[in-house]
Amino acid sequence: MTAIEFSNVIQRVAQSLRPVAFNLTRDTDDAKDLVQETVLKALMNREKFKTGTNLKAWLYTIMRNTFINNYNKITKRSSNIDSSEYLQYLNTDENYITQNKGTATFVMNDINKAIAGLSEEHRTPFMMYYIGFKYTEIAEKLQIPIGTVKNRIHIARKELKQTLKVYKQDA
């Protein structure tokens, strides 16, 4: 199929794309733009079309992918965080900004004390899980059933939650 024949066929089929484009965009002007962009992409990628296959389906695929890509671009653009409230800190001298790490130190001391207060049979699997071991790895290393590992970790969490309930934030 020559380029002119291909262009003519595309123009005829493009009319049937408009209702689908409108369903996607829900706006007449956006639907026309989507069809136009689809036709342009089809003409630019003529060599990728295999003669004898369904041209209409190929165009629908191009249109759907174009719509999805445009939608993703729009949502990324509109989901930027408004950082204007932080602009006041941009030109401040860093020597005047200090951080109080005392609270974090107290919290970590309480957490470490609570973990140390766990029985050895609960603390060991809990700490292994905490540092990244999977249940099956813990069961193999400690030579205990996986159900026992899960139970001991559950009990450790429950005891820690009870011990550290002063830090619970009301949601």
From TrEMBL:
It comes from the Bacteria. GO terms for biological process: DNA-templated transcription initiation. Keywords: Sigma factor, Transcription, Transcription regulation. Residues 10-73 form the RNA polymerase sigma-70 region domain. Pfam families: Sigma70_r2, Sigma70_r4_2. GO terms for molecular function: DNA binding; sigma factor activity. Residues 110-160 form the RNA polymerase sigma factor 70 region 4 type domain. SUPFAM superfamilies: Sigma2 domain of RNA polymerase sigma factors (SSF88946), Sigma3 and sigma4 domains of RNA polymerase sigma factors (SSF88659). Gene3D superfamilies: 1.10.1740.10, Winged helix-like DNA-binding domain superfamily/Winged helix DNA-binding domain. InterPro entries: RNA_pol_sigma-70-like (IPR039425), RNA_pol_sigma-70_dom (IPR014284), RNA_pol_sigma70_r2 (IPR007627), RNA_pol_sigma70_r4_t2 (IPR013249), RNA_pol_sigma_r2 (IPR013325), RNA_pol_sigma_r3/r4-like (IPR013324), WH-like_DNA-bd_sf (IPR036388). Belongs to the sigma-70 factor family. ECF subfamily. This is RNA polymerase sigma factor. The lineage of its organism: Bacteria, Pseudomonadati, Bacteroidota, Cytophagia, Cytophagales.
